[in-house]
Amino acid sequence: MVQLGLIGLGKMGFNMRERLRAAGHEVVGYDRNAEVSDSSSVEDLVSKLAAPRVVWVMVPAGDATRQTVTELGELLDEGDLVIDGGNSKFTDDKLNADLLAAKGIGYLDAGVSGGVWGKDNGYGLMVGGAEADVASAMPIFDALRPEGPREEGFSHAGSVGAGHYAKMVHNGIEYGLMQAFAEGFELLEAAKVVEDVPSVIKGWQRGTVVRSWLLDLLVRALDEDPELDDLEGYVEDSGEGRWTLEEAINNAVPAPVISAALFARFASRQEHSSAMRAVAALRQQFGGHAVKKAGG
To answer: Can you tell me the distance from the alpha carbon of 56 to that of 257, in angstroms, rounded to the nearest whole number?
Structure first.
């Protein structure tokens, strides 16, 4: 049994705490929502941990993570360890690690995949940092990862930043897979010959080369709403798809699928697209094609 401080008890952090406790570990959590928090402040959380302390940060990337890491740097002691399990940009990790290293505090970055299902299924973990720090936190990683061989649910990706870099690429791939399923769904719906789209997609779950957990989740959504009429086609992005493309450009790696998937998300937010109005105007001008008038 190990002891862990966990800052951020949102949708993932709360479930991570429950999974760790179910594995027999002691978790002291802090969240601004007092109803789910085990402590009144970050300082109170640190006071409840025995040295050497391990604190896992699970708050939004950017300023919130930086502020939390800075505060921990003032409260923790030499030999303690901070793990950033949020979706931070990998370039932030060296800054955080250097800030803590000046006080002898270790730092790991952990890319975490599993969403709201991780509590029961386990989380895929991609970790960056020193080997000794990874080894000291391994009981925590082993409790969080899925059952089965460690190497199939956990990877020590490299030095600081490597974990979040791996998670960034993972999410870029996820963008492409989701977009492919979405386009296939739309084509099946548009085809007159296919009469039962949900049954076709459900029939892909076993034996086909496209079977996957994402496909299973699409089937689940269609079971609840066969034509997905209850949803608007508006899709946000967490930022990691953009970072993936930045890195593809920096390394001269072609990434047409991921880029198309990201741009499709941008298009979903345009109720009235100036670009598509221009395309319609051009088609009408050169080919006399019919257009739909605004408000018609």
So the answer is: 34
- The answer to whether residue 289 scores a pLDDT higher than 90 is no
d(CA 189, CA 226): 11
At residue 296, does pLDDT exceed 60? no
Q: What is the pTM of this model?
A: 0.91
Pairing of strands 54-57, 26-30: unpaired
Contact 164, 88 (CB under 8 A): yes
CA distances from 98 to 1, 57, 70 (A): 30, 17, 11
pLDDT at 292 over 80: no
Question: Is the confidence at residue 295, as pLDDT, over 70?
Answer: no
Rounded Cα distance, 138 and 145, in Å: 10
Torsion of CA 169, 172, 176, 179, to 10 degrees: 150
Which active-site residues does the annotation give? Answer: 167, 174
